[in-house]
Amino acid sequence: MSQALVARVRGFIDRHCIPIESAAHVHDPAAMDAALAQLRPLARELGLYLPQMPVQEGGLGLSWVARAAVFEEAGRSYLGPAALNCAAPDQPNMISLLRQGTAAQRERYLRPLAEGRIRSCFAMTEPAPGAGSDPSMLRTNARRDGDGWVIDGHKWFITGAVGAVFCIVLAQTDEGPTQFIVDMDNPGLHLVRAIKALDPYAVGGHGELRFTACRVGGDAVLGEVGQGLAYAQQRLEPARLSHCLRLLGRARRAMEAAQAYVCERSSFGERLADLQQVQAMVADCHIDLHASRLMSLDCARRMDEGLSVKTESAMTKVFVSEALGRIADRASQLCGALGMSEDDAPVALIVRELRPFRIYDGASELHRATLGRRFLKT
Hints:
Number of domains: 3
CATH class of the largest domain: Mainly Alpha
Radius of gyration: 21 Å
Strand order of the largest sheet: 1-4-5-8
Order of helices and strands: HHHHHHEEEEEEEEHEEHHHH
């Protein structure tokens, strides 16, 4: 991994991203998009853009191990990953289009997505009794109609939906779950609302979508009919690792703020940093950071070697999501009242960002149950 590249990412985050972070971006996808429009040309100019994409697609062509340090550095600012155009859901959508898309689909959707001219979303999660952690409960359906398809269904908590130009939607067909590309301006697709979830900085927010007699052409199928769940699994394993790497950076940022605070803050005649209890909390945070990084790097190495990471990515996601939550919680505690403020320090909002990670991309409980069954069979 080029240390020079990592240093350029770190400098970009410190000099360009962090200075324009603003409370105005909280739950405001349009404000976030405006900030990213300033940052993406700078990222291109510095040679930081699209670290995950092949060189022939305009990216840096980094291996998983190489991009790990880049993702972590970018993740120190909530603007960083999207500025480099390696944020969810666009990042995994690019990979899906690259792998399963036709030449026409790549030209129409992948090219402008990679260039940062448009955004996208991935519509799988449904309200009860539809699909959530259990994709077999999928209720959104698509039926053939002449040369095309008609989609009906209800999706929610669809990250990136507000302001997206298209979505990749998972729907049930007679042949099995299938992925379709649907333009967001399709008259059969309605953005019901933006859901103000706990995490404040999701690019494009979280949307609720209704598909009502939503007609698409035969060329809207992404990949093969009936293979949608297999494709979804292919995107989830690298997506989990990408989340771990990016959010490692956010947890590190919280610790940077907490350590600076305890080193300058005094109480009862001594610095907080000189108290053993504070030292123990700081040590525990760095132990969690180190273990999280090592698990993530091991998973990245396996992916570079072409090995299955079905088990390793699940274990990594469970451990890292919980470890980062512990780090952010300790950081807020170390900062005292400052750690509760959304205006004066980044820590409180980082706590909010990290908490949903234990649910997104599969709840910890689901992964533990799946892993337990898998291990008991061996």
